[in-house]
Target: 4-hydroxy-tetrahydrodipicolinate reductase
Amino acid sequence: MGRTLLRSVLEGEGFQLVGALEHSASTHLGEDAGVLAGLAPSGVTVQSDLGGALSGAEVVVDFSSPASSVRLAERLAAAGIGHVIGTTGFSSEDLSAIAAAARRTAIVKSGNMSLGVNVLAALTRKVAASLGDDFDIEIVEMHHARKVDAPSGTALLLGQAAAEGRNVELDARAVRVRDGHTGSRRAGDIGFASLRGGSVVGEHIVIFAGPSERIELVHKAEDRSIFANGALAAARWVKGREPGLYSMADVLGLDV
Model:
């Protein structure tokens, strides 16, 4: 994602790359960010010094790790710099820390930066609100073999949308694992299934299974550039916003 994002920034309209940040053990420290992205030299080198990377920045786009994103949110809040977070796998404590940082700066956070996925989430919310508990909700996701968190951040985003449509708490109704003799499915639960293998960028299916009929909402990501392009749309939108924790639904102006 880092290289994809660099290409999108350097080739896109209206953006200037002022810093590229990596962890201190990265083998890419000192490399030119443009060359690393497969483009001409950009004059910006990859570094691990946060202060240096932030010099001149108005917005930071962050696809890293939960711990790194939380630390970055705190630093950006102190500096009043906008923050776009595409990281997934946060704990409840991490989310509380990000919400606290959003009281001092504008943050756009999403489990998926794809414009299409966020339209899918809005549709999921509306369908869930329209259909009763006799339609069971199941979310199936598949990603490449190297993905480390499950369910995916996108699956959880879709699950949250379904829970909001049903006016329930996702944590109270989510079923993330089924194994052995589980008994009958409980009405109103929101199920998750995670598949891993190969080089799949990302596939998500939201299934509404009712009596004698089934609705399936599907999104298939074919290239990581969709996430970078969505993140840059969020960066353009969040610049100069009042402090707050925003979503891609806000960026897209979706009526949710």
Q: What stands out?
A: The first strand starts at residue 20 and ends at 21. Residues 115-221 form a domain with the Dihydrodipicolinate Reductase; domain 2 fold (CATH 3.30.360.10). The longest helix spans residues 115-130. Residues 147 and 203 are 13 Å apart (CA to CA).
